[in-house]
């Protein structure tokens, strides 16, 4: 089969189409023929050599996919060959076929183009698991960094569905307008003093929850933006891995700083998150309460172009690779 591989760590030009053996499903696993795969920031980090896959997982990138089941491993029930499915992966979606534990398969939300759904799996699983983790609820205020991206555009709508007041940061006026069109109450240009703007908008109270994809660069400002008993959850490190934490300020705010990832969770944990997405998010998608964000589709063999587009900072919403 064909797969997208990295010749050596580096830029998007290091991606190449190669031939590799087709994987075979083991007990509890299924083999899926890939129809589409989402591109995520984690893929770029892996391509650059900063985010290797968990032990025992293929080096082929790709954390979410749409496909058709081709074969069932031993002891798999509830699925059948020929079934179209979505999948949450630890790796492997940038290929013609991938193997995944059956518990990490998801049904398709009703009434949605399957290709659109292909770009929802990772963002929905990330946002739902993290907002559950920090207990975001009705009447609270959340600040979402990178509001115009794939995670951000979903997080805005899910937070609004939970009854939260939503603030975002983004880099251009068009992106801020896009975030507002999705339901954001306030938007701040991250090139400017967004921390002061947050404090003005909250009358110096701060926000209850921050969902952060940036990492070290924003650590001090994030803590300073928390309300009493506020929670900062870090899910990315686009701008560094080492920051300075003012412990006194964190104590004064009774704040919590936590960091999570999805890729390194156990199959059992991922299966639970998948069921949560099916039960909570898919009905919101099908009813129109959450509208899938902007999506850009790139041919499978042009993965390098997809990566370059994501890195350009010009993209709004999600990029997916489509296997014709």
From TrEMBL:
<feature type="domain" description="Enoyl reductase (ER)">
    <location>
        <begin position="10"/>
        <end position="321"/>
    </location>
</feature>
<dbReference type="Pfam" id="PF08240">
    <property type="entry name" value="ADH_N"/>
</dbReference>
<dbReference type="InterPro" id="IPR036291">
    <property type="entry name" value="NAD(P)-bd_dom_sf"/>
</dbReference>
<dbReference type="GO" id="GO:0070402">
    <property type="term" value="F:NADPH binding"/>
</dbReference>
<keyword id="KW-0560">Oxidoreductase</keyword>
<keyword id="KW-0521">NADP</keyword>
<dbReference type="Pfam" id="PF00107">
    <property type="entry name" value="ADH_zinc_N"/>
</dbReference>
<dbReference type="InterPro" id="IPR011032">
    <property type="entry name" value="GroES-like_sf"/>
</dbReference>
<dbReference type="InterPro" id="IPR020843">
    <property type="entry name" value="ER"/>
</dbReference>
<dbReference type="GO" id="GO:0008270">
    <property type="term" value="F:zinc ion binding"/>
</dbReference>
<dbReference type="InterPro" id="IPR002364">
    <property type="entry name" value="Quin_OxRdtase/zeta-crystal_CS"/>
</dbReference>
<dbReference type="GO" id="GO:0016651">
    <property type="term" value="F:oxidoreductase activity, acting on NAD(P)H"/>
</dbReference>
<dbReference type="InterPro" id="IPR014189">
    <property type="entry name" value="Quinone_OxRdtase_PIG3"/>
</dbReference>
<protein>
    <submittedName>
        <fullName>Putative NAD(P)H quinone oxidoreductase, PIG3 family</fullName>
    </submittedName>
</protein>
<dbReference type="InterPro" id="IPR013149">
    <property type="entry name" value="ADH-like_C"/>
</dbReference>
<dbReference type="InterPro" id="IPR013154">
    <property type="entry name" value="ADH-like_N"/>
</dbReference>
């Amino acid at each position: 089969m064909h797969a997208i591989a990295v010749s050596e760590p580096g830029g998007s030009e290091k991606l190449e189409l190669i031939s590799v053996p087709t994987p075979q499903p083991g007990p509890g696993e299924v083999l899926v023929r890939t129809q589409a795969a989402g591109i995520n920031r984690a893929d770029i980090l892996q391509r650059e050599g900063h985010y290797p896959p968990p032990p025992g997982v293929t080096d082929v990138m790709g954390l979410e996919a749409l496909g058709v089941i081709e074969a069932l491993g031993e002891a798999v029930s509830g699925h059948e060959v020929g079934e179209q499915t979505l999948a949450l992966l630890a790796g492997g979606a940038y290929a013609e076929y991938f193997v995944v534990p059956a518990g990490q398969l998801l049904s398709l939300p009703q009434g949605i183009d399957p290709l659109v759904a292909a770009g929802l799996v990772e963002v929905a699983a990330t946002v739902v698991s993290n907002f559950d983790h920090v207990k975001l609820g009705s009447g609270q205020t959340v600040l979402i960094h990178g509001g115009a991206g794939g995670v951000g555009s979903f997080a805005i709508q899910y937070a609004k569905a939970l009854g939260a007041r939503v603030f975002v940061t983004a880099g251009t006026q068009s992106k801020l307008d896009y975030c507002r069109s999705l339901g954001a109450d306030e938007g701040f240009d991250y090139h400017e003093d967004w921390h002061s703007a947050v404090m003005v908008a909250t009358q110096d109270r701060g926000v209850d929850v921050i969902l952060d994809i940036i990492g070290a660069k924003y650590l001090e400002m994030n803590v300073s933006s928390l309300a009493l008993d506020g929670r900062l959850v870090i899910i990315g490190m686009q701008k560094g891995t080492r920051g300075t934490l003012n412990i006194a300020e964190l104590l004064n705010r009774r704040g919590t700083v936590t960091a999570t990832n999805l890729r390194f969770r156990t199959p059992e944990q991922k299966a639970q998150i998948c069921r949560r997405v099916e039960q909570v998010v898919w009905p919101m998608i099908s009813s129109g309460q959450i509208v899938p964000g902007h999506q850009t589709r790139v041919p499978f063999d042009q993965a390098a172009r997809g990566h370059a587009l994501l890195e350009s900072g010009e993209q709004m919403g999600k990029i997916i690779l489509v296997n014709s």
